[in-house]
């Protein structure tokens, strides 16, 4: 997160002071005979319909492209910082009991009841003495390794709430990436000309598009046979 913060500062300096110089330094376009767009003209988004208040090409490249605020918002940044409180690296140097409790309370309220959130604090006190200060756990470098070590040492029963929270943290990258892929695919599948597509049909199209590698394993002839065998068709599909 420190790297993200410094990157935001450097990008802002590029926008404010170095943008004109950057455009002058882009010389490969002339060498490769690539047409340079007019920075004062309207920027057209071919996925969405063009509107009268479209921003200019220069504004799009200078501000819309070089932005991390949407990807690393304050809420996302806080979530990553709180997740770091369970990182076992450097002998649990980042461990903070209050941050772990805040993580469960603020970002996972439906996964822990009020009573469980109270019990989590008591478990963390024992965890701090039993695990954080235990030399056997000081050589761990990832949260996944910590999760495996808790299972191997049979401490998951004593710290079942902490184990649940660690499991939620481990699934966070997968769930986030899947959601982002789904929204990216939706922009390509449900365009302006297909805005009346029903939810079930849209869901089926997105599933095939997102899992395109898996979809290639199915034989087209087999799908046609199964579709034809469901009921009698007016036209012979074979």
Summarize the structure.
By secondary structure, the chain is mainly alpha-helical.
Task: Please tag this protein with its features.
238 residues, mainly alpha, 12 helices, flat, protein dimerization activity, HATC_C_dom, HAT C-terminal dimerisation domain-containing protein
Q: How much of the sequence is in beta strands?
A: under 5%
How large is the count of helical segments? 12
Characterize the biggest β-sheet.
Answer: none
Order of helices and strands: HHHHHHHHHHHH
Quaternary class? single chain
Number of DSSP strands?
A: 0
The class by helix and strand makeup works out as: mainly alpha
Low-confidence stretches: none
Residue share in helix: 55-70%
Radius of gyration over all CA atoms, rounded: 26 Å
Domain HAT C-terminal dimerisation: 154-212
Pfam families: Dimer_Tnp_hAT (PF05699)
Protein name: HAT C-terminal dimerisation domain-containing protein
GO molecular function: protein dimerization activity
Walk me through this protein's architecture.
This is HAT C-terminal dimerisation domain-containing protein. It holds the Pfam family Dimer_Tnp_hAT. One of its GO terms (molecular function) is protein dimerization activity. It comes from Paspalum vaginatum (seashore paspalum). InterPro entries: AtLOH3-like, HATC_C_dom, RNaseH-like_sf. The chain contains twelve helices and no strands. Helix 6 runs antiparallel to helix 7, helix 8 packs across helix 9 and helix 9 packs across helix 10. The chain is flat and about 65 Å long. The model has no long low-confidence stretch (mean pLDDT 82). With 238 residues, it is mainly alpha-helical. The termini are far apart. 62% of the residues lie in helices and 0% in strands. Among the domains are: 64 residues, no CATH class; 102 residues, no CATH class.
